[in-house]
Amino acid sequence: MISYVLRGLTGKSALRKALQKHFEGLQLGELVTAAREFPIISRVDLQMALDQMFENRPASRLFGIHAQMGHETPTLAHLFAAGPFPMDIGPLQYDEVDIGDPVPVRCLKNGL
Q: Which of 78, 88, 98, 110 is most buried when burial is the number of CB atoms within 10 A of its CB?
């Protein structure tokens, strides 16, 4: 428990380290991001497209994102920000979306 508290106070996280390694050689100010909101009814189609896109990329890794203060939608800026409560790797979280089939479709809530 003590190491967890101390790690939180230093603002370091495994997720931040992974991002820094991924973007090695780039200045954070050089990164540009954009957001797009999809209608709720498109979530299933979007999940299927993402699953298909990453299906043949075995080197890709999917991280669940955990925020101790989970009232905001995580952004790349949040993931790089230092502070006492950094976002970190956590379990993947899904919503089960009912589309009228016997089994609902699992759609990722947030991930990286």
A: 88
Q: If you write DSSP's letter for every residue of 49-95 in order, what string do you get?
A: HHHHHHHT-TT----EEE-SSTTS---HHHHH--SSS--EEE--EEE
Task: Write the pLDDT tens digit of every residue in 74-106.
Answer: 788 777 777 777 788 889 999 999 888 899 999
Nearest CA to 19 among 58, 50, 63, 85? 63
What is the DSSP-derived secondary structure letter of residue 101? S
pTM: 0.68
Read off φ and ψ for residue 107, nearest 5 degrees. Answer: -120, 130
Given this model, what pLDDT does residue 11 score?
54
Q: What are phi and psi of 95, to 5 degrees?
A: -105, 140
Tokens of 99: 């589309």
User: What is the separation, in whole angstroms, between the first and last Cα of the chain?
Assistant: 26
Burial class (CB in 10 A: 0-12, 13-18, 19+), 56: exposed
